[in-house]
Amino acid sequence: MKAVLVPLNYPSHNIQLLLSRAMGNDQIARVSTKNPIHFPGEGKRIVMMDFGYKKNILRSLLRRNCDVVVVPWNTSTEMIQSYRPEGILLSNGPGNPKDVPEVLPVIRDLQKIYPMFSICMGHQLFALANGADTEKLKFGHRGANHPVKDLKLNKVFMSSQNHGYSVIPASVNKSNLEVSQVNINDSSVEGLRHKSLPAFSVQYHPEACPGPEDTGWLFDEFLASIRN
Amino acid sequence: MPVNPNLKKVLVIGSGPIVIGQAAEFDYSGTQAVKSLIEEGMEVVLVNSNPATIMTDKETAHKVYIEPLTKEFLLKIIHKEKPDGILPTLGGQTALNLAVKLEEEGHLKRLGVQLMGCKVDTIQKAEDRKLFKELMQQIGEPVPESRIVTSVEESLEFANKIGYPLIIRPAFTLGGTGGGIAQNEAELITISTSGLAASPIQQCLIERSIAGFKEVEYEVIRDSKDNCIIVCNMENIDPVGVHTGDSIVVAPSQTLSDKEYQILRSSALKIIRSLKIEGGCNVQYAMDPHSFQYYVIEVNPRVSRSSALASKATGYPIAKIAAKISLGLTLDEIINPVTKKTFACFEPALDYVVSKIPRWPFDKFASANRRLGTQMKATGEVMALGRTLEESLLKAVRSLEVGLYHLELPSLKDKSLDEIKTKILKQDDERLFAVAEGLRSGISAKEINDLTKIDFFFLAKIENIIRMEKKLQEKGKTPETIKEAKRLGFCDKYLARIFNEKEKDFFEWRKKNNIMPVFKMVDTCAGEFESSTPYYYSSYESQDEVLESNKKKVVVLGSGPIRIGQGIEFDYATVHAIEAIRAMGYEAIVINNNPETVSTDFSTSDRLYFEPLTVEDVMHVLEREKPIGVVVQFGGQTAINLAKPLSERGVTILGTSVDDIDRAEDRKRFEALLRSLDIAQPLGVTVTSMDEAVEKSAHLGFPVIVRPSYVLGGRAMEIVYNEDELTDYMKRAVQVNPEHPVLIDRYMIGREMEVDAICDGETVFIPGIMEHIEKAGVHSGDSIAVYPPQTVSQDILDRLASTTLSITRALNIKGLINLQFVIYQGDVFVLEVNPRSSRTVPFLSKVTGVQMAKIATRALMGESLMSQGYFHGALKPKDDIAVKAPVFSFAKLSDVEIALGPEMKSTGEVMGKDKVFEKALHKAFVAAGVVIPDSGTILATLNDMDKEEGLRLFKRFHNIGFDFVATAGTAKLLKDAGIHVKTIDRIGQSENDILKEIRSGRISLIINTISKGKNVESDGFKMRRCAVERGLLCLTSLDTTEALLKTIERNTYTMEPLA
Known about the structure:
The structure holds 2 protein chains of 2 kinds.
Chain A: H1 12-20, H2 27-31, E1 37-39, E2 45-50, H3 55-63, E3 67-72, H4 77-82, E4 87-90, H5 104-113, E5 116-119, H6 121-129, E6 134-150, E7 155-167, H7 169-173, E8 177-183, E9 189-194, E10 199-202, H8 217-227
Parallel strand pairs in A: 2-3, 2-4, 4-5, 5-10
Antiparallel strand pairs in A: 1-3, 6-7, 6-8, 8-9, 9-10
Helix pairs in contact in A: 5-6
Chain B: E1 9-13, H1 25-39, E2 43-47, E3 63-65, H2 71-81, E4 85-87, H3 92-104, H4 107-111, E5 114-115, H5 120-127, H6 129-138, E6 146-149, H7 152-162, E7 166-170, E8 180-182, H8 185-198, E9 204-208, E10 214-222, E11 228-236, E12 249-251, H9 258-275, E13 279-287, E14 294-300, H10 305-314, H11 318-326, E15 353-359, E16 380-386, H12 389-399, H13 417-425, H14 431-440, H15 445-452, H16 456-475, H17 479-487, H18 492-498, H19 503-512, E17 518-521, E18 535-539, E19 553-557, H20 568-583, E20 587-592, E21 607-610, H21 615-625, E22 629-631, H22 636-648, E23 653-654, H23 658-665, H24 667-677, E24 684-687, H25 690-700, E25 704-708, E26 718-720, H26 723-733, E27 742-746, E28 751-760, E29 764-772, E30 785-787, H27 794-810, E31 814-824, E32 827-834, H28 841-848, H29 852-860, E33 873-874, E34 881-887, E35 908-914, H30 917-927, E36 936-941, H31 947-959, E37 962-966, H32 968-976, E38 981-983, H33 994-999, E39 1003-1008, H34 1019-1029, E40 1034-1035, H35 1038-1051
Parallel strand pairs in B: 1-2, 1-4, 2-3, 4-5, 18-21, 19-20, 19-22, 20-21, 22-23, 29-33, 36-37, 36-39, 37-38, 39-40
Antiparallel strand pairs in B: 6-9, 7-8, 7-9, 10-11, 10-13, 11-12, 12-15, 13-14, 15-16, 17-18, 24-27, 25-26, 25-27, 28-29, 28-31, 29-30, 30-34, 31-32, 34-35
Helix pairs in contact in B: 1-11, 5-6, 7-8, 13-14, 14-16, 15-16, 16-17, 18-19, 20-29, 23-24, 25-26, 30-35, 31-35
């Protein structure tokens, strides 16, 4: 559904004009950082590819003493390697994951070299990079009360969600990935794990803020995968 | 996980009688739980002593026992029924305490019964203050500095260390009985003394007071797989310091940031996990408004009053889910019963605001201390939903039925700012209104926040209401201003008043201007998923969410909040009416505002409208639903009072006509009716001056019952025995003038009888007649009732029946009617007729097996009694004898007179049933919590009128092993009769006065009949209060005394030497 936000008494033909405009496909480029930013810490060095990252992802890493470099969405593998990271985080971000195909080869390269953790948009890109597919949901998932079941732990966690696209469950079968978590209500894909590499992803926001802190442990799992 | 295969048969324990702190919410949770267990294939055995509940209907479970909730009776049932499991987490503190006892004493292990819902060590960790504190420290959850004490000395020691104010919380008590906040040493001594006495293990927690912090509660559910969810969080408008049961509560929390919300949420999950609770649990927090510091106040490892509120506030049925979890099912496999599409493992989202306001009994107990603190005092509560907080708050205010319909208390009008501030500081039940009046009079929100610590957000909301009042004054009545006022919850009655209009005309104007509410659905998910649960609330918005239906509909009005005089009995009848209507193929719609009840469970009716029971709010539903009619006779006085105004607006009242209701309720018309039928009633007059009162009373003949229409203070109704008493009482307590007439009736001292009957307009069927143990003069709700009558001749019973038949027919009753009689010198006199369902309907339905409310519903819908298989006349009594006994909550209400009289004081009831009268009576006493002494010392003080009868009883007590202490007059009586007695002094006469004797612990029973000249200061009052505070049985009626004596005689031995 398209909508526009306009001032009161805004001319209706202008509203129509706005509505008739095609949806942009450069949202990620518009919100991503233009230059790398370094947030120093004494622990593991993490490079976060910024597709429109939420501050609390950064804080979640910094709270765990990480040394974080936030890089623009279109940074090359080489450039990222030059920061000598110990792990890679693919952040959340707006829009359709298929708008940024140029990121996929970078993800494929990086996941072979470093442990990787991806969130939301990052999760969808991780899926696309590994041969799975994404689609637009009819309503999307919004809110802080989405039940997600971890298939290994056989336990349910409340999660904070805000996404309109989703990984197609059937598409995972032909990829290098396996589904690690599902949504209780609609069985949609909530988490993926690479079959052979230390890389995993979630569709929701484990960094919370707003929302429940139930899945904050995923950051610890990510850091543990670096140590291993 | 599948249902535990070891469980086939489950025993569910109910919560017993309604008392302050444990009310109808446990009928709701228990009923839900039983249904839920049956859904999973369990055979369910249920035990509860409270007959006024839906859960004790024999259709609710496979087997239902109405027996006292004591270890002894429970063991009998367990031996007989051999259940595999016992579920105690849905019957309040009563059930939980019983389960702990059974487990600790090894009975459950011995009998191979599994304790379901939680483990005993969990209960202990949550409820024992010391263990709880240790656990919290272990898992790093903050609790206020505190110390467990078992003596007053220890509490003083702690106070010397950390200073005041301090909170005293007795361990293992309901609703914080005996606790309080001490500001200084003197208060600490008083409160810790009563707290230690109230705790069954003589243990109190003394802790640093965190009064003034935000008080927030979380309702948590956990399953055996360790999945945990928060169903709802709630915030008290009243900060820490007022018991949460006495606080005005909103849901969801309104002033917490996401960060604060999540801090507490994570803490609540951590706590339920560490306690390993499988089911529902409630965690209370104090949150510092100025930092992120919080404290855990309390954990209830069971379904509670708050969880009933949370269930109704969100639509998420906690008890139902908790019951399934107790069988081993997990949240991710239980379907969400509201959406029927999603699972129970999620957290509800609310797109509305819920307000709960407690209903206090201070209208009945004028002398009670109204200050709110750690001891809960409310008997019930109302809930309202709205799209704005203002709307939900104002809807809740007018749901209370305390004569108020806006944030306006007439008694505060024209008060000075200082007086209003004093009132605000009093922290009583009227503080919300005082705060509003303060803001209205120009006291700043800052100052009110200083005085009360009520959050600025809430004050701003109240200010919005006041700003709207001013705007209405300035801009007048326009569609725009009214629309805005309506969105803020203003009612027609207020708006019509300020515009000098009739409420009805205002409603019509509004309708013409299309300012009508729409109805929104409570769907647990704020519209995210499709939902088909017809649970609605009104709001002034654009999109209506009511599901259309073309079935014929009938609306049933509920009974509103539980209060003294209108308890759960009326919800019972309401639910039965709904069931009958549904069974007849109609769609049953219920309107009610009490979140504790079964009637407001959305699965009870076809459609539930959670709305205030006012003409305006009811009319909105009727306009939307267009039912064939409205049933008013099951919702107590609340619903009956709406009959006339609704019919004036063209609504069809199903059942007894409005005019016939009026003929029964209007004193003059009723007198005329009885005269025309040649039926006697005690003579009565209406007087408008003191002289007239004196003159006419002399003519009637003393004693007389005086009923003022306006009460200055003290009791509303009183029996006086001579002219002096009359003038004294009238001067002291009554305003009498042409505007406030006083009714005076001859008081006939005789046996009181009660009859409930059903009529279809033609046939009158009498399921049963009850006899009261206490003579007329004690309110029927406070009397012990016996079925069938034990001391009345068949001739009298026949006359009662024939009188009932003729009055019922003459009133053209369609549905239920209740009649009260007094037998005076062999004649039958009518005391009172209620053209509606009564308090005794559930009791009588259960003992006679006649489902009165259902039959009455069918009758009023046009199905004749004959066609239902009933006949004209009285049903032959059953062989079993049943006794209904009242239960009081005096321990929770300081400064309340406990002596029985014409004003009702009890909060609940229990039933005892057996083959023999004395055994049934015994069960009723035990179920009511009376510790029946087998022998011991009786403290006796009688007034002169009662001495003769008293002596007869004393002799019998003496024969079975009782001795006496008494004040001079009564002592002489005993001495003269040759019975040993120790004489004690009146209060203050010496060191060894009555109070000291009561506190000595040597007394096992007090028999005290009140002398005249009563006021709060009198000795008798002090003595009775002292007895209540020590937990001693104090009988104020010789009739009750004799009943108790009979049960003791039956169960004990005569102690007589050889002749």
